[in-house]
């Protein structure tokens, strides 16, 4: 699956508003996503809200009408794996971005803010089960790495 964060229009205050087109094996969909500021400094974990968009051109027109302008666009190739660990539904995503070296692993779970600390412990336990320790982790985002590569 490839997804193109085609219009990340805000990178202010550690937040992003983006329109992504996700190309799957059987379908293509567009998603509007808001990523809030990091709620955990060590991991860089951010709250995320997203919804499907039926009309991509209308979504772009609405955002432009509200004063948002594209800041960066790039291709991100993802392979998602859903699983359960430590009593939680988890999503592991293997990520490749053609502009930057390496393959990255993102592990996520959906939680209420009150359960954030325990959820982060469970995500770290999953990473440890995979043989990944703190020295293997980064707070750098794909967006930040692409922007740095282009400078």
TrEMBL record:
Gene3D superfamilies hit by this protein: Hypothetical Protein Pfu-838710-001
Q: Which SUPFAM superfamilies match?
A: CYTH-like phosphatases (SSF55154)
In what residue span(s) does the CYTH domain sit? 1-151
User: What Pfam families has UniProt attached to this entry?
Assistant: CYTH
Q: Could you tell me which PANTHER family the record lists for this protein?
A: CYTH DOMAIN-CONTAINING PROTEIN, SI:CH211-156B7.4
Q: Quote the protein name from its UniProt record.
A: CYTH domain-containing protein
According to its UniProt entry, this protein's organism is Streptomyces camelliae
């Amino acid at each position: 699956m490839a997804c193109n964060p085609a219009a990340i229009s805000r990178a202010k205050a550690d937040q992003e508003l983006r329109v992504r087109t996700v190309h799957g094996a059987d379908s293509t969909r567009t998603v509007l996503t808001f990523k809030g500021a990091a709620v955990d400094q060590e991991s860089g974990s951010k709250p995320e809200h997203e919804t499907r968009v039926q009309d991509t051109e209308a979504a772009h027109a609405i955002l432009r009408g509200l004063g948002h302008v594209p800041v960066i666009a790039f291709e991100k190739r993802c392979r998602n794996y859903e699983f359960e660990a430590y009593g939680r539904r988890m999503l592991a995503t293997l990520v490749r971005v053609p502009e930057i070296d390496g393959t990255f692993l993102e592990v996520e779970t959906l939680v209420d803010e009150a359960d954030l600390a325990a959820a982060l412990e469970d995500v770290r336990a999953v990473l440890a089960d995979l043989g990944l320790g703190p020295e293997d982790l980064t707070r750098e985002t794909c967006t930040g790495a692409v922007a740095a590569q282009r400078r």
